[in-house]
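Posting for a labmate who doesn't have an account.
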Amino acid sequence: MIRAVADTHTVIWYLANDARLSFVARQSMEAIDRADDQIGLSSISFVEMVYLIEKGRIPAQRFTELATALAAPYSLLVELPVDLQVARALARVDVQQIPDMPDRIIAATALHLNVPVISRDGKIRLSGLTTIW
């Protein structure tokens, strides 16, 4: 069962064991993993990661690590498509509160699934959506 949707930076930091991932976020992710549940990752995050690699903001190995993690049996992470239901949920995410389109799609994905977003993003956290950080 999907228990949360992770923002792009959350997954990058989780896979890299980066100290920027908050203690609460890491503990939540590990608890979801121990329960044999999953954390959704919007397919927009793959596009965002390629962009970050092209800009030199993250190493290309992060994308490879993510692909490997997604392919593993019983993976904590599961890909979630940007589909009609997410597009409809997007209309419920206030563009004034979350203006960045990838962030809006991630928020809409969580809203559609009625699960929290694991994110440090201040705009997502202030939007009224349930967040973990």
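Reply:
Got it, the structure tokens are right above this. The helical segments are 8-16, 23-34, 44-54, 61-71, 84-90, 101-113, 122-126.
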